[in-house]
């Protein structure tokens, strides 16, 4: 399989090289086990010219000039902060998007990592398709390309010849999926274990931090949301909520939905899950005690709600994330607003 990984100014070099290196390991595993007599994957890093490409941070990447003899092209992401204007950056990538459009017209499969999906969108490759990207930029992708359906929580989405994946480390998942598709489960499993890559990840939902997502100012809904969080552990009572803001229940539902696209109860459920996630990460409280603290009496009901929103149950979430989050979401959001880049 001939694969070209597209390098361009400002791209994230790690997303290129974790992908190419995992396929290199898979080639070695396939040869050593007798599954292949030669390298199954022939991978090149390509660009508009053969001159070195300055990746994010100014690191030069050696490349080969692109052509149209690839079976698959992979597009890495680039430095991006939520407040950044995308137009200048994407306008500067016009040569790359024209190349991608031409390659797709020739039947080449195209894949992206993280915000590399924006280049696919500029090339018109997401129109009428399902796709994904980093949860931090999923809403923005959907707004910019309204003819696509963005699956915010998906780790990878394949729709016809187009595959899009989530942030940064999803380059490993993309490489693993190619190994599994072309060499089978045994080679994919051996490669993943050699490289210490998590196998069969399917969702980025456990990693989503709602407080880091850009939001439009909604004065009424913000005040209602703050009230609901303040009374998080108390039973939900729409009549009481409406009374606290001196409006009818119908007005409460209409105004809150108009500003947020959800009901107060939907907001409360998500707030309760956020609070539970924080307690799971930062305390030794039992799941039962946490359930009580966030306003539920039936542990089973809350476990189902938690799993539906996060993708894993509370116990598994604690195993994955206990002690890993030392910076509050608000602090991280402040770093992003200060212009420090993230993928």
DSSP strand count:
11
- The fraction of residues assigned to DSSP E strands is 5-15%
* Mean of residue pLDDT values: 89
Describe the strand arrangement of the main beta sheet, using strand numbers.
5-2-1-6-7-11-10
Gap from first CA to last CA: 28 Å
Global outline: globular
By helix and strand content, what is the structural category?
alpha/beta
Number of helices: 15
Order of helices and strands: EHEEEEEHHEHEHEEEHHHHHHHHHH
The major β-sheet equals: 7 strands, mixed
Percentage of residues in helical conformation? 40-55%
Radius of gyration: 23 Å
Low-confidence stretches: 324-343
Layout of helices and strands, plus pairs?
Layout: E1 2-6, H1 13-32, E2 42-47, E3 53-54, E4 60-61, E5 64-65, E6 72-75, H2 86-91, H3 94-105, E7 109-113, H4 117-122, E8 130-131, H5 138-144, E9 149-150, E10 156-159, E11 162-165, H6 170-183, H7 185-195, H8 219-230, H9 238-244, H10 249-260, H11 264-282, H12 287-293, H13 299-310, H14 314-321, H15 329-337
Parallel strand pairs: 1-2, 1-6, 2-5, 6-7, 7-11, 8-9
Antiparallel strand pairs: 3-4, 10-11
Helix pairs in contact: 1-6, 1-7, 6-7, 8-11, 11-14
